[in-house]
Design goal:
The chain has about 280 residues and is an alpha/beta fold. It has two domains: about 160 residues, 3-Layer(aba) Sandwich (D-Maltodextrin-Binding Protein, domain 2), CATH 3.40.190; about 100 residues, D-Maltodextrin-Binding Protein, domain 2 (3-Layer(aba) Sandwich). The chain is about 35% helix and about 20% strand. The chain is built from eleven helices and ten strands. Strands 2-1-3-10-4 form a five-stranded mixed beta sheet, sandwiched between helices. The longest helix is centred in the last third of the chain and has 16 residues. The chain is elongated, with a radius of gyration of 20 Å. The N terminus is likely disordered.
Length: about 280
């Protein structure tokens, strides 16, 4: 499945301000191997998305914890470089991995939360995408007292469903069954966590979004079921991983080893569990 991940343009000036700390690290000779430069600098600069619950909100989240584990594995400090998503994933890879942003910050040494997708790799020959660490899926949560079964979306009748309109989940629901459910959708939401919050408050019968978003709000609550959106092409989801410059293969090998370690020792699963999210093997 091809992931294009189109997003609305946001206030990039905020990202520039957040990046000042990372930009303060002194420049080192670029002809040295990436891993050597990072160790001489004493810090790993990790690009992470702003406002992406539960992976990063206000300096906390799953990706923040993973970034810390990667820096620890390299025996250097962590320097986070939060940024606002651009129009598409190609822009993010250019700004945060191989070139740097036109506002003057970046690139990072490594970018987290990159779809591990062959067409994306082919379209971006300047980067290496590797080390998948989670499988994301579009899912739907429902109030079991109001919707005890869900064989198809028709089981919700005319009851209200919450979903952020400008997301993959939103586009899928808006177009499902030739637009049959469009009138019952509450789409004026930022993301799946806001949709899940409406369900938690009893304002809707169901909420759709990414599995991680829904679980971070509703996980562990027996009143709700969280299941794959009943559309066949969405059941497998997509893997997310890391991206570095193509010529930073020594760094890629070291980071792959670090990811393997936190998977094998259960640390990565505990990072997800801390946000009530079930870790799914990529």
């Amino acid at each position: 499945m091809t992931i294009t991940t189109s997003r609305p343009r946001r206030a990039l000036l905020q990202a520039g301000a957040a990046a000042l700390a990372a930009a303060a690290w002194p420049a080192l000779a670029q002809d040295k191997p990436a891993l050597q430069r990072i160790r001489e600098r004493g810090a790993l600069i990790v690009g992470i998305y702003n406002d992406m619950p539960p992976f990063h909100v206000g300096g906390r989240g799953i990706d923040v914890a993973l970034a810390g584990a990667l820096a620890k594995a390299l025996d250097v400090k962590l320097s986070l470089l939060p940024f606002q998503a651009d129009e598409n994933m190609d822009d993010d890879l250019r700004n945060m991995v191989w070139k740097g942003h036109y506002l003057g910050f970046g690139p990072a040494d490594v970018l987290l939360h990159v779809p591990v997708d062959r067409p994306l790799m082919a379209a971006n020959p300047r980067v290496s995408i590797f080390a998948p660490y989670y499988r994301e899926r579009v899912m739907i949560a429902r109030d079991l007292s109001k919707a005890p079964k869900m064989d198809s979306l028709a089981d919700f009748g005319k009851q209200k469903i919450a979903v952020a309109g400008q997301t993959l989940a939103g586009w899928l629901l808006i177009g499902a069954d030739s637009g049959q459910y469009r009138d019952q959708l509450n789409t004026f939401l930022k993301d799946g966590t806001e949709a899940a919050a409406l369900l938690l408050r009893g304002e809707v019968v169901a909420a759709a979004g990414q599995a991680s978003e829904l679980e971070s709000v509703l996980g562990g609550d027996a009143r709700f079921a969280i299941e794959p959106l009943p559309l066949p092409r969405m059941k497998d989801g997509w893997a997310i991983g890391l991206a570095v410059k193509k010529d930073s293969q020594d760094l890629a090998f070291a980071l792959q080893a670090a990811v393997n370690t936190v998977v094998d020792n259960g640390e990565l699963g505990r990072m997800f569990a801390a946000s009530k999210v079930s870790w799914r093997k990529p």
